[in-house]
Amino acid sequence: MNAPVAKKRAHTERREKQVREAEELLFSGPQRQSFGKSLFSGNFVGSLVFPYPALPDDQQAAMERALEQLRKVCDQYLDPDQIDRNADIPQELISGLGEIGLLGMTAPVSVGGRNFSQLAYCRLLEELGSRCSSTSIFVNAHHSIGMRGLLLFGTDDQKQKWLPGLVSGEKIAAFALTESQAGSDASNVQTTATLTDDGQHFVLNGTKRYITNGAIADLLTVMARTKVADSDETAVTAFLVTPDMPGFRVIEPRMEKLGIRGTATAKLAFDQMQVPVQNVLGPIGKGLRVALTVLDFGRTTFGACCTGAAKTCVRLANEHAHRRVQFGQTLAEFELVQKKLALISADTYAMEAMTKVTAGLIDGGCEDYMLETAMLKVWSTERLWEIVNETFQIYGGAAYFTDQPLERMLRDARINQIGEGANEVLTSFIGLVGMRDPGEELRTVAEAAVRSWRHFMALARFSMREASRRCSRPKLTVRSSELKPAEKRLAKQIKQFGICVQRELIRHREDILERQLVHERFACAAMEIYAATAVISRRDAEIQTRRDTDGDADRQKLASFFLAKSERRVRECLRGLRDNDDVLLIHAAETTG
Fold first, then answer.
1. What fold characterizes domain 57-168?
2. Cis link prior to 51 (omega < 30° from 0)?
3. Please, which residues have CB within 8 angstroms of residue 294's CB and are 6 or more apart in sequence?
4. 267: which of 223, 251, 271, 476 fits an S-S bond (Cβ 3.0–4.6 Å)?
5. From CA 317, how far away is CA 405, in angstroms rounded?
6. Helix%, strand%, coil% for the chain, nearest 5
7. From the candidate CATH numbers 2.40.110.10, 3.40.50.20, 2.70.50.60, 3.40.50.1110, the one assigned to the domain spanning 173-285
8. Which helix (H) or strand (E) holds 68?
9. Where are the domains of the chain?
10. Which is nearest to 125 in space by CA: 371, 251, 298?
11. How far apart are CA 568 and CA 575, in angstroms?
């Protein structure tokens, strides 16, 4: 075997293993098909996204009271420009957020939390995200990922020891995964944890970087590599670490950075640091499961924070466009500005819908929401970047100066496409995980075809499913008659999407694992279908309740425009599978190496 072929095969095997590990770690045993995965088979699991998520009256009232408390704290203590200039979040603000329960909002009442649902919590993070990205990321790092592992995987003793302080805000949490060789590739952790001879401690050695809250945290969830029993292999294990442990060292407490300057982003080192065995979080060797599960929650609240920032942009853009007069008329009267206003408003409407639907999956007890949280994270962060940029353009030169918030918002928004999984990595992941089930089915059929008499029933079942799928369309559960045309168009696209997935799997076979441009087209199409579904679900609920006639007319315009735009994007993605410049692109890329 020549070297290039061997290298390619090794890379393919490694990629397959990573995808398989991710799913096996998170979801062992039989599972229902998730909404996102079902799309890749041309199916639609409507019960997961219809009806549109809504809080019961008592929870809605509690959320609104908490929202009012949050607004008062922010009005009194939160100055986003000062936080950016001073590169620090004031303790008065942190204490205020702790006093109203925001730092432990979803924790159980037994440890001082408020037991809020993910849907209610996302609404509060949206409010925070609309005001200050540094503060919303601080809270996200503390609550959504910092102490989430403890909530989900901690023992009773661990929870009783640490949760009360974390929930009240007296103590701060952080999540320490990232290293020089382990960013989006979470499985490549190099920090080691060696069990002592007496079996009482693990000795940790290694460094972590880009750790939000790292230098101010009282408790850190740290990922390190431990030896697998009776084997030469190692696996990642999660540990609960406190900064008072000998060997814990802060190399750089506040790394200078472009945006979210208020967050304390640290570089840490562990030098022969002894961690009691009682501080192992979850099973030994199952740290990746802890990490990936925690990141799913963080990606959901990412969507909420992005929605808040997007709403601020929509407000600022509309205010300026209707106030600023040039060439004898307001900016809002020019079609090219109207185009920008329509795009950012429609995408913000969809972003809010997508976030709520994803939060609803978690609250509803859905076992598998890995793909949906990844789609939300990629879609919302990409759209927010465009929204901030378009708002910046509407403001013109004025946006470039520090007396306006947009230069700060532009700097703050850039990290979103990198943090908690780089968008390129997640895009490929969405494509690969989505294609896995239909790919496995095709492989089973191919093997059965070789021994057709022995596997006649498998072939017959596949043929019947294919005939049924190609002669029918997925059924959505829309109640409003005015949405039926949009429902039919979306159903048609879902069917076509599934057919295209199958066709590309047959075309590329095993090479599909390396075809990231194909992954991207499928992932982008799936994200648009998910966003369109969320918009239809939201609009259906709004039509059924119709309390605000004027506002309802505006929402109908936004939904209609978004659905038309999204439908066109899906068509372009699927058309690009055959009509593209991929070969020329690869050749051009080779010239830079």
1. Butyryl-Coa Dehydrogenase, subunit A; domain 1 (1.10.540)
2. yes
3. 144, 145, 148, 149, 152, 175, 221
4. 251
5. 12
6. 65, 10, 25
7. 2.40.110.10
8. helix 57-77
9. 10-49+425-590, 57-168, 173-285, 289-424
10. 298
11. 10
Q: Using 50, 70 and 90 to split pLDDT, how confident is the model at 28?
A: very low
Q: How far apart are CA 468 and CA 305, in angstroms?
A: 42
Spell out where 49-125 has E strands. none
Residue 38: both structure tokens together: 């079902």
The neighbour count for residue 164, using CB atoms within 10 Å, is 17
Residue 403's pLDDT is 96
Dihedral angle, C-alpha 219, 125, 544, 56, nearest 10 °: 40
What is the dihedral sign for C-alpha 224, 229, 234, 236? negative
In angstroms, rounded to a whole number, what is the distance separating the alpha carbons of residues 313 and 413?
12
- pLDDT confidence of residue 383: 99
**Residue 541 near residue 54 (C-beta atoms within 8 A):** yes
Distance of CA 80 to the CA centre of its chain: 24
What the block records as the tokens of 179 is 């290293």
Q: Which residues pair with 193 in a beta bridge?
A: 204
Angle CA(269)–CA(289)–CA(104) in degrees, nearest 5? 75
Reported as a single tens digit per residue, the pLDDT across 442-484 is 877 666 555 554 555 554 555 555 555 555 667 778 999 999 9
The two structure tokens encoding residue 423: 């968008």
The total of other beta-carbon atoms located within 10 Å of residue 28's CB is 9
Q: CATH number for the 10-49+425-590 domain, one of 1.10.3720.10, 3.40.50.720, 1.20.140.10, 3.30.230.10?
A: 1.20.140.10
CATH of domain 289-424: 1.20.140.10
Would you tell me the crossing angle of helices 406-413 and 287-323 to the nearest 10 degrees?
Answer: 160
| Catalytic sites, residue numbers | 420
Alpha-carbon distances, residue 16 vs 99, 432, 511 (angstroms): 47, 9, 11
* Strand spans (E) along 116-264: 173-176, 192-195, 201-212, 219-227, 234-241, 248-252
Kindly state the helix (H) or strand (E) to which residue 329 belongs, with its residue range: strand 329-330
Identical fold, 10-49+425-590 and 289-424: yes
pLDDT single digits (tens) 245-302: 999 999 999 999 999 999 999 999 999 999 999 999 999 999 999 999 999 999 999 9
pLDDT band at residue 546, thresholds of 50, 70 and 90?
confident
